[in-house]
Structure formats: structure tokens, C-alpha cells
């Protein structure tokens, strides 16, 4: 018994930005970017909102639009009991991004909340869904035995949808970061089943970012209050603002963290599942940098063919990237029912994790 993925979907914005186009706004070239990152193009949401992208990825995961992957048949949105949305770029502080997607897709019975866990959202979201589905199944079993009603919300299906517009946080004059990121959304529908094992294990961790190697201030962190002395002078108040609206990254430090975290978290998840790297049909890692994926493959003594690489056409889409990579592996037929896959994520927080599941 376990949490089984029964649907998967993705959404990428219409606008594709090439490396040559970036070379027109910052000092870079395609020849400089590709060897360092593996990125050729990325999608940028010029018109699409986070809700647009998340709703389309969700609709495809439910089978309401073409382009998704379904285990069996179309999924009724009303059957979704909860929506979890890992995101850094929600359309509003509230309602939650999950609630906005709920309204758009007609998931009228879903309880909704967002998660802030950066590029690990793929793992944190699906692992949280797995734990909640297990808790609900245990509660229902205890209620049946005692002849009473369940004490908590009944959860049988959870939609995990990560939607990101990192283009809104990128400083487009900073070459080291603007070349890396793209926009998009990825989604999976997870269902508790008594006759299938689904998710086999998960592992999550946090490391203090004491040196602020990967950071983005809140947009209102330095907004003056009417109770401060500076508020008496509008010019002085404006000059006092120190909030940086863009994400900042110490590239070498983040690369060192990412390579170590990816291998370590995959190892922990595999140990918990009682499996070895050779037992995994395909790895769907966070698409941060192709060099990080190649490093992990080398450390685990595996060929690159065992890793889904999608960064070349989408860039780093934060918590959505591994879910998009998983969707592409499923729709391309690289993963079939009965195969075992591993998803890994690492990012700001500093967060990291991995999960192992049977398709």
C-alpha cells in the first residue's frame, strides 16, 4: 500500500529565449553558457501568470488537457482532497497560489496551501503529500476498527503542483544568474492505494545559509512604518530602504553545496528504500546545471542515460523543474508502470531532499 502517482503534467510559457538573445542584454554568448550550464533556451512568462501555468500543468495531470500522462483514466477535479503548491513566486500573498489554482481547475473539495522550499519543492511537496495520505489512511483504518468517523480530513488524492516565474526575481543585468533561470510548472496527482506501494522512501534536510549564498529578500522587508522617525520624511524613508528585490547567488558555493547534497540525499533515500543506484530505472533530478547532474552520475558510477536531462530547453525552473523532468520522462516512455524512479531537489533555504517511488 502507498501513495501512487496517477497523473503528471507540465506547462511552459510560450516565449522561448535563446542564449543569443541574452547576449544582447548582458555580456555573454551561447558558447559561454552551454559548456557551463547545458542550457540552450529557457521559457519566460511574458503574459502567463503563475496561476495560468499551474492550472495548465494540473489540467494535464488530471487528463483534462492533452499533453499529460495518466496511469488509467481522466481524474475528476472534484475528487482532489488537497492541493499543495511549492512556489517562490505566487501571484498573491493571499489567497494562496494553491487556492487560485483550485478555483481555476474546479477542485471544489480541495484544501489548499503553499510551500516555500525553493528548488526542493518537488521533493518536499510530494513527500508531504505521501505522509498526509499515509496519516489519513491510518486514521480511516482506526476509525473503521473502532466503528467511528475519522478524526481528521479524509485524504485520498492530493495534487502537488509547483509553479514558478523566476524571471520576476532575476536581475537581468547580472550574467551569473540571469542565464540560468526559466519559468514553468509541473504537477502530479498522488492517490493512496491499498494494492500498490507507490512512494518507497523519502529524505529531506535543511542546512543553515549563514553566508547567504542563495538569497532573495522579501519585497516588503524594509517598507517604512508610520511609527518610525524616518516616516516623517518621505525622502529619508526612501533612502533608508535596503531591500534587494532580486535573487542573489554565490555560484561556486552553491555549486559545491548542490553536488554534495544531491549525492548525499539520493544515497539516504535509497538506503531507506533498501535499494542501490543500479536498482533505479531513471533519476529525475532538479535541473539546476547539467554539470551537477553529470557529477552525480559519475559519483554513483552510472551512465548519463539513467538521468533525465531537460535543462537544455527550459533552464532552472526551481521546484517545478524535477516535476517537469519527470513528466517528460513519462510522456517519452522512459518510465513505465512497475519501474522505480528517484527524484531529487536542492536549493535555497538551504533545502535538499530525494524520494524514491514505483511508477
TrEMBL record:
<keyword id="KW-0808">Transferase</keyword>
<dbReference type="GO" id="GO:0033818">
    <property type="term" value="F:beta-ketoacyl-acyl-carrier-protein synthase III activity"/>
</dbReference>
<keyword id="KW-0443">Lipid metabolism</keyword>
<dbReference type="GO" id="GO:0004315">
    <property type="term" value="F:3-oxoacyl-[acyl-carrier-protein] synthase activity"/>
</dbReference>
<dbReference type="InterPro" id="IPR016039">
    <property type="entry name" value="Thiolase-like"/>
</dbReference>
<dbReference type="Pfam" id="PF08541">
    <property type="entry name" value="ACP_syn_III_C"/>
</dbReference>
<protein>
    <submittedName>
        <fullName>Beta-ketoacyl-ACP synthase 3</fullName>
        <ecNumber>2.3.1.180</ecNumber>
    </submittedName>
</protein>
<keyword id="KW-0275">Fatty acid biosynthesis</keyword>
<dbReference type="Pfam" id="PF08545">
    <property type="entry name" value="ACP_syn_III"/>
</dbReference>
<keyword id="KW-0276">Fatty acid metabolism</keyword>
<comment type="pathway">
    <text>Lipid metabolism.</text>
</comment>
<keyword id="KW-0012">Acyltransferase</keyword>
<comment type="similarity">
    <text>Belongs to the thiolase-like superfamily. FabH family.</text>
</comment>
<keyword id="KW-0444">Lipid biosynthesis</keyword>
<dbReference type="GO" id="GO:0006633">
    <property type="term" value="P:fatty acid biosynthetic process"/>
</dbReference>
<keyword id="KW-0511">Multifunctional enzyme</keyword>
<feature type="domain" description="Beta-ketoacyl-[acyl-carrier-protein] synthase III C-terminal">
    <location>
        <begin position="270"/>
        <end position="359"/>
    </location>
</feature>
<dbReference type="InterPro" id="IPR013747">
    <property type="entry name" value="ACP_syn_III_C"/>
</dbReference>
<dbReference type="InterPro" id="IPR013751">
    <property type="entry name" value="ACP_syn_III_N"/>
</dbReference>
<feature type="domain" description="Beta-ketoacyl-[acyl-carrier-protein] synthase III N-terminal">
    <location>
        <begin position="151"/>
        <end position="204"/>
    </location>
</feature>
Amino acid at each position: 500500500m502507498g501513495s501512487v502517482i496517477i497523473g503528471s503534467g507540465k506547462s511552459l510559457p510560450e516565449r522561448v529565449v535563446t542564449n543569443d538573445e541574452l547576449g544582447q542584454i548582458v555580456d555573454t554568448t551561447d558558447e559561454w553558457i552551454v559548456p557551463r550550464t547545458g542550457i540552450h533556451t529557457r521559457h519566460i512568462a511574458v503574459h502567463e501568470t503563475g496561476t495560468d501555468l499551474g492550472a495548465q500543468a494540473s489540467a494535464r495531470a488530471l487528463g483534462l488537457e492533452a499533453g499529460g500522462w495518466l496511469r488509467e483514466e481522466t481524474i475528476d477535479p472534484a475528487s482532489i482532497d488537497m492541493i499543495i503548491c511549492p512556489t517562490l513566486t505566487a501571484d498573491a500573498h493571499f489567497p494562496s497560489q494553491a487556492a487560485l489554482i483550485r478555483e481555476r481547475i474546479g477542485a471544489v473539495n480541495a484544501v489548499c496551501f503553499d510551500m516555500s522550499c525553493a528548488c526542493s519543492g518537488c521533493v518536499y511537496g510530494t513527500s508531504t503529500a505521501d505522509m498526509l495520505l499515509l496519516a489519513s489512511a491510518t486514521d480511516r483504518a482506526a476509525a473503521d476498527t473502532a466503528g467511528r468517523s475519522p478524526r481528521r480530513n479524509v485524504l485520498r488524492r492530493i495534487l502537488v503542483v509547483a509553479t514558478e516565474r523566476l524571471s520576476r526575481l532575476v536581475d537581468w543585468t547580472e550574467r551569473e544568474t540571469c542565464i540560468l533561470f526559466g519559468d514553468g510548472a509541473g504537477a502530479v496527482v498522488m492517490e493512496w492505494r491499498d494494492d500498490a506501494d507507490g512512494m518507497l522512501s523519502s529524505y529531506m534536510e535543511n542546512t543553515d545559509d549563514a553566508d547567504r549564498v542563495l538569497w532573495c529578500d522579501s519585497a516588503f522587508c524594509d517598507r517604512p512604518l508610520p511609527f518610525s522617525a524616518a516616516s516623517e520624511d518621505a525622502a529619508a524613508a526612501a533612502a533608508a530602504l535596503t531591500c534587494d528585490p532580486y535573487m542573489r547567488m554565490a555560484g561556486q558555493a552553491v555549486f559545491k553545496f548542490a553536488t554534495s547534497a544531491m549525492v548525499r540525499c539520493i544515497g539516504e533515500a535509497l538506503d531507506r528504500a533498501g535499494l542501490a543506484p543500479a536498482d533505479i530505472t531513471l533519476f529525475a533530478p532538479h535541473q539546476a546545471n547539467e554539470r551537477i547532474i553529470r557529477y552525480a552520475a559519475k559519483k554513483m558510477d552510472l551512465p548519463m542515460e539513467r538521468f533525465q536531462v531537460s535543462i537544455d530547453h527550459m533552464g532552472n525552473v526551481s521546484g517545478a523543474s524535477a516535476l517537469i523532468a519527470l513528466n517528460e520522462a513519462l510522456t517519452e516512455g522512459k518510465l513505465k508502470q512497475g519501474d522505480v524512479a528517484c527524484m531529487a531537489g536542492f536549493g535555497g533555504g538551504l533545502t535538499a531532499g530525494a524520494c524514491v517511488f514505483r511508477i
